[in-house]
Design goal:
single chain, mainly alpha, 91% helix, 0% strand, rod-shaped
């Protein structure tokens, strides 16, 4: 407390500074109830700030996840469909090469055409 008073007396204008310093000293010497109240108010202030920052960050994460689900999942579905179509056509082409029966070849060729049309429709 002496160092606190000495600091305020060492500044220039003793009257204003002394009154300000004395008020601050009274607050800090006001008893355990005043100090507990100030400490509790400070902790509540910190909790409020932390809550505000947390809610703001959660809202940012929510926006990002919403974009991932709504925009990127559609693109991912297109990629999966394209991959499946190419895979199915590759199997049909293999079957055309391996089949000896002309009727079965015709069936596989129609399947290839159907899959190509499906691929073209999906891509447009």
């Amino acid at each position: 407390m002496v160092a606190f008073q000495t600091f305020f007396y060492s500044l220039g204008n003793h009257n204003k500074i002394t009154r300000c310093g004395e008020r601050m000293i009274k607050v800090f010497n006001g008893g355990i109830g005043v100090r507990l109240g100030i400490g509790f108010a400070f902790v509540l202030l910190l909790m409020g700030i932390l809550t505000y920052l947390s809610v703001r960050e959660i809202n940012t994460l929510d926006r990002n996840l919403r974009q991932i689900n709504e925009v990127n999942s559609v693109l991912q579905r297109y990629a999966i469909n394209f991959r499946g179509s190419v895979h199915d056509r590759a199997i049909a082409i293999r079957d055309v090469v391996l089949i000896d029966d002309p009727r079965q070849r015709e069936v596989e060729t129609k399947l290839i055409d159907k899959l190509a049309a499906s691929y073209a429709q999906t891509s447009s």
